[in-house]
Amino acid sequence: MVQESDKTSLQALPSRELLGQRRVLVVGDVMLDRYWHGVVERISPEAPVPVVRVDREEERLGGAANVALNVKTLGARCTLLTVVGRDEPAVKLRELLHAQGVETVLRDDPKLHTIVKLRVIGRAQQLLRIDFENEPDHEVLGEMLDAFEQELPQHDLVLFSDYGKGGLAHIPRMIALARAAGKPVLIDPKGSDFQRYAGATMITPNRAELALVTGQWRGEAELKAKADALRAAINVEAVLVTRSEEGMTLFGEEGVCHEPAQAREVFDVTGAGDTVIATLAVMMAAGLSQDQAMRWANRAGGIVVGKFGTATVSYEELQA
Length: 320
Fold this sequence. Notes:
Layout: H1 16-19, E1 23-28, E2 30-43, E3 50-63, H2 64-73, E4 77-85, H3 88-99, E5 103-109, E6 116-122, E7 125-132, H4 138-151, E8 157-161, H5 171-180, E9 185-188, E10 202-203, H6 207-214, H7 220-234, E11 238-242, E12 248-252, E13 255-259, H8 272-285, H9 290-304, H10 315-319
Parallel strand pairs: 1-4, 1-8, 2-6, 4-5, 8-9, 9-10, 10-11
Antiparallel strand pairs: 2-3, 6-7, 11-12, 12-13
């Protein structure tokens, strides 16, 4: 039976000074989130679709770049390792990352179209999303693995942000290297092959991602059985299932810990998983236990879904 955690036992937020001494290595698929905001006043005479008169454009860091920004915003030091193209979106990503103080190790692939997600917004509602993407070259991914080995010793924890875009082709080798070096490894997974995450410290699937791998469950007892079976099958210490309005549940070596959802108002869940795993990483790098880190991550997730689009949570917001 899943038991809710005792809220009175929430450990104090680590000091800014301590967080500033911790370094997190974020590896994964980056993207540029573009938003075209406009006004919808009529339907097109060419087809039964709304006409959006764009009056404002916005660009934000997405994917692993948003994870890295969340780590930095919380006060820890962060290095982002990824592959980008040699195109205008890559230039913009570099500018945004530099402006936010995120350290980067970027490998260029001249054949790669840097991932862009373009969202068209009318009257605060998302009307359309257009994706631009292709997979990186194998030679560049090999260079990324070499860079990972060089960066690993300088960091306290490794976070893999897998969006299934091909940037983590060498993740089994990277996990093995990190664990051999004694570094905790957190993974936000994607797809149906969780065996590629074998040996990690923790994976953080949402309900749909877990069901894709384990099948659906009926009730908490069956969910626990499936999560425990998955932990054993891929040799990970913990599975943290993010469950939207049901909160999140940690299945680990010391049993089960559940936190109910804390969101007062859900405006947009875009990027919420990025905030959750970034908070987990920062708190665990600062020495908090997995269940204590989960509680702070749950609080951060509750804050960020009240914001529009890919967003972050500051140290002050989390403390308040």
